[in-house]
């Protein structure tokens, strides 16, 4: 709110006839006194059973396999994995393996505004990878924007996240195939 807004607001208040006083017995809304900013700005989802309902996705990834959910009711394949099918609302989903190799469908380079933990790594490449059954967005490691072309073959790599949480976390990235 700038100075003018405040003046206008004061005018409105003094000019308006109060019909009610908003109640004297007011509810109190609690908000946290302190906010752990690193937690909120963390790019990576928490990955244990207590914090996510797609823990199986992360467990599979930790074991080296990229997976996603497929609806057992309508057959729809989702990415990212779901807990309810967005097509038919069924909760009967199964985890299926995804290929680890695909093609660059689109890509760009990040030069500023990188998420926490990646600020030192700019510029870096992000892209959309076409795995066949699904397309997903991911960082493309070990690649320079100028050296890439749409259709380039890429393969998945798994990175471990060393963050401010008490459980192991992993995430997927891609890199050009040798
Ligand atoms: Zn479905």
UniProtKB/TrEMBL annotation:
Residues 1-14 have a biased composition (Basic and acidic residues). It comes from the Archaea. Coiled coil: none annotated. InterPro entries: ChsH2_C (IPR002878), ChsH2_Znr (IPR022002), NA-bd_OB-fold (IPR012340), Thioester_dehydratase-like (IPR052513). SUPFAM superfamilies: Nucleic acid-binding proteins (SSF50249). It holds the Pfam family zf-ChsH2. Residues 61-94 form the ChsH2 rubredoxin-like zinc ribbon domain. Residues 95-157 form the ChsH2 C-terminal OB-fold domain. Residues 1-23 are annotated as: Disordered. This is Zn-ribbon domain-containing OB-fold protein.
């Amino acid at each position: 709110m700038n100075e003018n807004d405040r003046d206008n607001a004061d005018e409105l208040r003094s000019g308006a006839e109060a019909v009610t006083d908003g109640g004297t017995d007011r509810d109190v809304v609690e908000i946290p006194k302190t906010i752990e900013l690193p937690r909120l700005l963390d790019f990576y989802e928490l990955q244990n059973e207590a914090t996510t309902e797609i823990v199986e996705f992360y467990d599979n990834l930790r074991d080296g396999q990229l997976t996603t959910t497929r609806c057992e009711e309508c057959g729809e394949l989702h990415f990212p994995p779901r807990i309810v099918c967005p097509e038919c609302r069924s909760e009967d989903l199964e985890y299926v393996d995804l290929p680890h190799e695909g093609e660059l469908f689109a890509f760009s380079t990040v030069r500023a505004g990188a998420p926490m933990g990646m600020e030192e790594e700019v510029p870096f490449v992000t892209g959309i990878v076409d795995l066949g059954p699904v397309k997903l967005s991911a960082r493309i490691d070990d690649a320079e924007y100028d050296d890439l072309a749409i259709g380039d073959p890429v393969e998945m790599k798994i990175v471990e996240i060393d963050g401010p949480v008490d459980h192991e976390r992993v995430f997927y990235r891609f890199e050009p195939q040798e």
